[in-house]
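Model: Ready when you are.
Researcher: Fold this.
Model:
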Amino acid sequence: MAEIEIDNFDELQEVEQDVQDVQETPEPQEEKEQVSDKEKLMRSLVSDDDEVDELTAAHIRQVLDAAPRWFLSQWKMLLLILAGIFLYITNGYQAQVEMMKETELEAELKDWRYRSITRVSELTLLCRQSQLEQKLREQGDSTLTPSKVAPFIINVKD
């Protein structure tokens, strides 16, 4: 080993810090290797290549280690979100069915209105005085004749 002369305490602390930094450098390299393993695993899972790296249970465990803990701690929120999604979809389908029924009933109501208008106009035509007189003449009833005296207006006092 080489000997280094240090005149003051500050220089000694700087040298010791440099020695510690040199000794600590291999650990980040290991972390980088772990990250690169995870990245490699994720890329192999997502890639469309025919060549897939061999996946081991250890690699899969490394990737999925954090996920179960998070899901277990958030299960109530996830259940609430799923219930909300379920209710939203169910409500949408129910609203759609009700709108279809409403459209069908409106079409049926419109049809009945047109039928009613037709029947009222046919009845009005058949009940007119001139039509009745003409039918009676065709049947041979000659006793019915139009009045020659104008109708009287009766005033009623309250």
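Researcher: Now this one.
Model:
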Amino acid sequence: MKRILAIVVFLAATTFAEGNFAAASATDSLNVNSVDLQEKELSPFDHLGGNMLWSALGWPLAFHVAGSGATYLLSTNDVDLMVARFAARQNETAFGIAFMPGMMMGTFFPILVPGYMYFFSSNKSLNNTGAVAAQATAVAFFYNNILKAISGRAHPDADNNSGTLSRDFKWGFFRRGVFYGWPSGHSMTNAALAMSIASYNRDNPYVVAGCGLFAGYVATSMVLGAKGEAHWFSDAVAGTLMGASIGWYIGNTFYKEKKGVTEKGTQVTLAPLFYDDRKGVMALVQF
């Protein structure tokens, strides 16, 4: 029963997050014109500075905090340990067939999907979706590596899992590099990929549903695949919450632009400087 409860908690968290992402942008959607305007050509660098800032400090911050809180609760109450031991006891071949595709997709899709859409598709709408997805994935990847470098969380060990191991964080800088750490990079980047596509194409319910299922499958695969040694349950929960909020925020920015909604508020633009005597980045903040 506890095993089933753990899986239900994860699925409920994912569903709850997706519902709240839609609610968070509902106010914006009220002002959307009913008729699409002609889409302009998008670049992954459009609105990059502002989207990087506000996908961390805007309303997505609530989901980043929720991911941190969920990690604390799931690890201290040994839910992480229970799920890891459950995964370690399962038939490796059967679970490999079920979840290895998710782990492989989680590794390559954040590069292949936006890359195909943006560079190779001849469909302008897909090109723009690829630009949005590329930016969201890159931002999530950037933040995830910072968090991993700081947290240094140990991975599960199928033969030696314990509550102590699930709470083994080495806080600091690069104490375990960026390959060990919290949250799950696969879960975070693929949730950002999926939710940015869903947010930008929210008028198509099939796209939204498919993106949600994909993000959930990748996150579940990172917990139950490879004998449970890839990530703790809370790594995937936190990664999904954080990545999906980043993806939805960035997708929503471009969605409003596509619909002709005038963006109000603070905007940040970053531009590189390459003078002989001065090199760096210039930030322009518009209120």
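Researcher: Key takeaway?
Model: The CA atoms of residues 115 and 163 lie 41 Å apart.
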